[in-house]
């Protein structure tokens, strides 16, 4: 009777697959580990492939973090949410803080742009609460947008 093998045989080495992934976009180290584990490569092979990629500067968490912050901030995402998303991708806290400080993003201006884009026509208590929740869900801190909540949008000068 024939036994069925439960291990997957891969067509390419872990290093080749890793290089293929990195040719598409930047990944964090943790994301690459997960992708290689999904393909059921040996742990030693995964470790060697990642070390080789980092030694040749094909993979860098610093570069990934900076590019991710730049990309997501252009989508209107604030620093609080960026921190959370980067932590989920396995980027270290100190690196996230460092890259957020280096990022050339004016969070107050970005918050104001997003706020003005979504501000409802009728500005009452319910609308203010909805906007507050929206801005927090986008990842902005209170001080980035709280001054906008107190403006009187009923005056004609803001229309």
TrEMBL record:
Residues 105-144 form the RecX third three-helical domain. It is found in: Cytoplasm. Residues 60-98 form the RecX second three-helical domain. It holds the Pfam family RecX_HTH3. InterPro entries: RecX_HTH_1st, RecX_HTH_2nd, RecX_HTH_3rd, Regulatory_RecX, WH-like_DNA-bd_sf. Keywords: Coiled coil, Cytoplasm. GO terms for cellular component: cytoplasm. Residues 29-63 form a coiled coil. Modulates RecA activity. Belongs to the RecX family. This is Regulatory protein RecX. The lineage of its organism: Bacteria, Pseudomonadati, Pseudomonadota, Gammaproteobacteria, Pasteurellales.
